[in-house]
């Protein structure tokens, strides 16, 4: 389903540029044994299947000792290593994933943004499928309470093993082809796989009592905190963008202090901090996908000054809005296809 990219190379500068839309505050620690001209060989493809649901395919080989650290946003991460071995750390918890290791699959519940590290070794390789589900996506599916954990702020890791059918479907995603797929059909195929991946991984890990007391209790229409669920719907729909927190509290029929307290209790961060990051991430997506101007992005994020917006954007993502917009030319295929990179 993808083009053979075994000869593609990526250096540190390009890796930072291509990673900027995917993670925050990336740092690369490189150990060279010689004078390589690149860090990785291979490719990485990222597709936003629907708001808050992203599927990433990574087929990479390390050309040197590379440790990549970054901050991941809150939500659920589901990883499946099809071939090779991935050496990862979430927060303070390290793990290895691969068909020959403890398990090929991992579900990570992150109540709040947290540290992530990938350790690469010279000659090491991996083919990995990663599904990211945002808090907004989870709220829309009745899973928002999953992020409210007794170890609030600490990533919860659960290993799982895929079925033969799912594993076979994942392998097919890495089958090289010279023909360019129909974008709409390809998008539907990826969406179907992503939903199957989420359903199987969450169902299996639900048999363990560690993830917020189980997932099935949160699948129904009743939410443990329906007002916070309504708030997330307002944010996700864009209706919360042009109003203050005081107005949001009034719309929800509660005091501002009560809203802020209950939001922090559920998501582990202050509401203002969450909103700032949410709108910066939204404008980053628009800069990449829609190629909007920096001035338009500033307005979308609620800034009256484009320079002030650029300062906040650079502080958050370690890249300027203009650089982020320019990097999209490397991430998108012609004709409006899904985003793709070649690492």
Automatic annotation (TrEMBL):
InterPro entries according to UniProt: HTH_AraC, PchR_regulatory_protein
Domain of life of the organism encoding this protein: Bacteria
Limits of the HTH araC/xylS-type domain: 229-327
Gene source species: Marinobacter salexigens
Signal peptide boundaries: none
Protein name (record): AraC family transcriptional regulator
